[in-house]
Amino acid sequence: MPDPMFDTATARLRLWWPYLVVAGCCAVLIGLLHIPGVVIALLLVMSMIVLLKDRGVSEEAEALRSSIRLSAEDIIEVLRSYEEFLSSSEPTVAEDRGEHRPALADPDCDDAEIAAFFCAVPAAKRYLTRLDYRLRRRMTVGQLETLLQLTDQRAVELAELWSAARRRALRLGGNYQKRAS
């Protein structure tokens, strides 16, 4: 038995049944009420078109919101990785933090690549806070597409900065000395 989600005949019927119902109602209205029936039928058809068109936009908007949330998860994952690096008590992580990449745990590190990541962390947190607020607002599909591009870009940039900071901290190695305060 074919799956109704992928059966084209079922899908076509699912798309056309609202139009058939409205057409039948319009025919009955025109038959019973004549001129007032034509006016009511026109209003009914225009309402149906607006509602069905808006439903498609709503579905597209929800898909975009979902994609934005997935991109935000990428940002959150990098922030979680950094937080785990800073605070985990697991022996491998503690060894990495203390012996291999101590510069990455030093907020006063003046290395350019590491400092760039340190600056990006609070910016990413602020962005996620604003993003949550924006996703609760009513937005057009165009605005959501722009927001998705921006969120994707920020996720990629933060991941690249995290990777570069980790590589640089590893190159500085365990001999890294904290700056005297």
Task: Give a structural overview.
The protein has 181 residues and is mainly alpha-helical. Helix 1 (8-33) packs antiparallel against helix 2 (35-87), helix 2 packs across helix 3 (91-100) and helix 2 (35-87) packs parallel to helix 5 (141-172). The chain has one domain. The chain has helices spanning 8-33, 35-87, 91-100, 112-136, 141-172. Keywords: Membrane, Transmembrane, Transmembrane helix.
Shape descriptor: rod-shaped
Number of helices: 5
Q: What's the total count of β strands?
A: 0
The number of distinct structural domains comes to 1
SSE order? HHHHH
Profile the largest sheet: none
Radius of gyration: 28 Å
Residue stretches low in confidence (pLDDT < 50, at least 5 long) are 1-8
Which percent bin holds the helix content? over 70%
Given helix and strand content, the structural type is: mainly alpha
Overall residue-averaged pLDDT value: 86
Q: How far is the first residue's CA from the last residue's CA?
A: 74 Å
Query: How much β-strand is present in the residues?
Result: under 5%
